[in-house]
Amino acid sequence: MLCFLFILPAFADKKKKTENIQELDEKTRLEFDYSFMEGVRSKITGDYQAAIGWFDNCLKILPSSSVAKYEIAGILTAGEDYNGALQLAREAVAGNPDNMWYKILLANILQKKAMIEEACNVYADIIAKYPNKEEFYLIEAELYISVEKWQKAIEVFDRYEQQNGITEPVSIEKIKLYTKLDDVKKASNELLKLIRKFPDKSEYLSLLAELYFNYNQELLPGPGYQHGFFYSLVEGSQQVGERPTAAFPSSHVGISTILMIMAWRGSKKLFACLIPFYMLLCGATVYIQAHYVIDAIVGFFSAFLLYVVVTWMFKKWFAQPMFK
Question: Residue 26 — pLDDT band, cuts 50, 70, 90?
């Protein structure tokens, strides 16, 4: 891919090859063109040392040639000689600051040398000149993310949205970054933007609810008369025992277990049909973080105790008097 990047531009923009060439006489210009084309030919055939020699000859003829410096820098980059490549790439950009390909190569070398901030600045310059090229926003943001500069990455995505509008991938990335910054309000705002733009996608509503419960420990206020005895009783018990996730024991597991006991006693075929769903439900209560494992275990065993006690109570106080 890198070879493609530094071979293609030699043919993509004729102006690059003729930069400052007007100052040469016709014979010297032909010599420059010949050396340059031989360098390109050598590079395509894989003879990089010969290619560097031909491009060096171009620099002897025209020391200010940015395209020759760019070509040598590209070859050195492919050979992982980033120090030599960096100086030549800087000179190429300085000689022709409007050339996008020169800046891309410079940014790539800076990234290889872990000079991320400067690489991002180069991409910012490219974006300023080519604001419609979406890929450069994403590359710049990814570079900031790689060094954990979350806020800088968000600012890049903000510039992207100003130019291109709200898109799902960028909004999702911003939500992740705001979550890393523990800025729940802004993460929620990003989700609300997605919900307004894509009202048919219910998964964003689920994400908003999940985001709320991940960062909010308090309970929502209950309905009804707020000074009544039972209202106060329920609110008090919730404040003492309720948590955003988990109720002890798990009523989901407990009630489902009682139903499975009744199915077993009533119809073995019905029991066999229901057992897969029962097992999935028990596992899901922990998997979706609705309960801790201990909640599900105690819910399972307490179901048998409750079944025995309630069955005994029914037979003693309801069933027998009813048929006397």
Answer: confident
pLDDT at 220: 52
- What lies within 8 Å, CB to CB, of 240 at 6+ separation is none
The 10 Å Cβ neighbour count of residue 252 is 18
Average pLDDT along the chain: 82
Question: Using CA atoms, how far apart are residues 126 and 137, in angstroms rounded to an integer?
Answer: 9
Confidence class for position 224, pLDDT limits 50, 70, 90: low
Considering all CA atoms of the chain, what is the largest pairwise distance in Å, rounded to the nearest integer? Answer: 125
Q: Which residues lie below 8 Å from residue 3, measured CB to CB, with a gap of 6+?
A: 78
